[in-house]
Amino acid sequence: MKVKVCGMRDAENISELVKLKPDYLGFIFYDKSKRFVTDFPKVEIPSEIKKVGVFVNETIENVLDIVEEHKLDAVQLHGNESPEYCDKLRECHLERSRKISSESYPIKILKAFSVDDNFDFSKTEAYQNVCNFLLFDTKGKEYGGNGVKFNWEVLDNYKGALPYMLSGGITKNDAQAIVSFLHRQESKKCIGVDINSGFEMEPALKNIANIKEFKQNL
Ligand SMILES: O=C(O)c1ccccc1N[C@@H]1O[C@H](COP(=O)(O)O)[C@@H](O)[C@H]1O
């Protein structure tokens, strides 16, 4: 199972975290977030750990500038970005990367959806060909980082082909429930979990011991 740790900012905290080999590290480029990255941490991140930029309704130009500047591997679109936006983002990125080097490299695109009991999963259909995977988070007051879980059973209504990550208020106490959830046939499209505020000592500073325990219990 993949583990993404989101909302990282502090270099020392990242250095400790990379020892646990998470699959993805998330950096939030949304200025209204408590985890907004102003100065990108100067720290060695092994290439096996993929860097994900989290954006909310950002312009394509700005997303691509940040991807290029920090050599991000993926973008997580956590606002109201349309399928057309996702498609254009991928096209523009390829066009830019071809100009920079003879080899173009694709970025992975994750589209986040805010889920509640009445979520209409047909909304995800138009994203199937323009994203690499989806992320299901809890619908809340803020775009993300609300620290609240949703009823994971509603995900049985997701019949799409794209894999997804489970997110929203996950804490170390959820490891067993996640294992049980993943063992069900209905959860076969779930490839991992995204953790964030449930592991924080303060915004953007993660409790490494808790993440270690969580990973061991998964
Ligand atoms: O964490 C934030 O501040 C944030 C702000 C805007 C968009 C996304 C954000 N984080 C993402 O929110 C989910 C759930 O986080 P939590 O576990 O409920 O704290 C996670 O995917 C983060 O990537």
From TrEMBL:
Residues 3-217 form the N-(5'phosphoribosyl) anthranilate isomerase (PRAI) domain. Pathway: Amino-acid biosynthesis; L-tryptophan biosynthesis; L-tryptophan from chorismate: step 3/5. Keywords: Amino-acid biosynthesis, Aromatic amino acid biosynthesis, Isomerase, Tryptophan biosynthesis. Gene3D superfamilies: Aldolase class I. InterPro entries: Aldolase_TIM (IPR013785), PRAI_dom (IPR001240), RibuloseP-bd_barrel (IPR011060), TrpF_fam (IPR044643). It is an enzyme of class 5 (isomerase). One of its GO terms (biological process) is L-tryptophan biosynthetic process. One of its GO terms (molecular function) is phosphoribosylanthranilate isomerase activity. It catalyses: N-(5-phospho-beta-D-ribosyl)anthranilate = 1-(2-carboxyphenylamino)-1-deoxy-D-ribulose 5-phosphate. It comes from the Bacteria. The keyword Transmembrane helix does not apply. Its EC number is 5.3.1.24. SUPFAM superfamilies: Ribulose-phoshate binding barrel (SSF51366). HAMAP family: PRAI (MF_00135). Belongs to the TrpF family. PANTHER family: N-(5'-PHOSPHORIBOSYL)ANTHRANILATE ISOMERASE. This is N-(5'-phosphoribosyl)anthranilate isomerase. It comes from Lutibacter agarilyticus.
